[in-house]
Amino acid sequence: MLSIRPRETVILATDFSALVAWYRDVLGFTVVSTFEDAFHYYYLETPTGIKIGIASAQEMEVVPGDRSSNTVILQFEVDDLHAFFADLKRAGGTVTFGPSQDKQGGFWFGGFSDPEGNPIWVVDKNCP
Q1: How far is CA 126 from CA 12, 86, 102, 111, 119, in A?
Q2: Whether residue 71 has pLDDT greater than 90
Q3: For the chain, which domains are there?
Q4: How far, in Å, CA of 52 to CA of 32, rounded?
Q5: DSSP string of 95-126?
Q6: Looking at per-residue confidence, does 68 or 81 come out higher?
C-alpha cells in the first residue's frame, strides 16, 4: 500500500497578494515561507497547525470558475462558532450560512467564504 502523509491544502488565487493578506489578517495565519522565483507560492500556518498554500492561479495556468461550486471545501473547527462569526463579520468576512444547530449531534455549524468566493465550512468543538 502507498504511504501518504498530510501536507497543506493549496488555494489558487486570482489576486495573490490580497488573498494572502486576508488569510493572514482575518483568519490569523502566519506566512511561514515564500517562493517567488519561477512562481509565487506562500506557505501559511495557524498556531493550531492548520496549513495552507496560496499560489497564483494565472502562473499555474488555471482560470478559476465559480468557486461557490467547488467540490473541495476547507473545514475548520472553532471553540465558539457564534463568537467566531461575530469576529469574522467585524473583520469584513462574508458568512454564507449559519450559525445553525445540529440538535441531534449537539453542535453548531456554518459557512463563510474568502474574498475570492472559496467556500469554507466551520463547526464548533462539539462536532463528532
Answers
A1: 31, 19, 10, 16, 21
A2: no
A3: 1-64 (3.10.180.10), 66-128 (3.10.180.10)
A4: 10
A5: EEEEEEEETTTTEEEEEEE-TT--EEEEEETT
A6: 81
Amino acid at the residue 92: G
By DSSP bridging, strand 94-102 and strand 74-78 are unpaired
Torsion of CA 24, 18, 83, 99, to 10 degrees: -130
Residue range 97-126: mean pLDDT, rounded: 96
* Cα-trace Rg, the chain: 16
- Count of beta carbons in the 10 Å neighbourhood of residue 105: 12
pTM of this structure: 0.89
Is the pLDDT confidence value at 69 over 80?
no
Nearest in space to 128 (alpha carbons), one of 113, 112, 110, 106? 106
Cis peptide before 6 (omega within 30 of 0): no
- CA distance linking residue 127 with residue 115, whole number of Å: 26
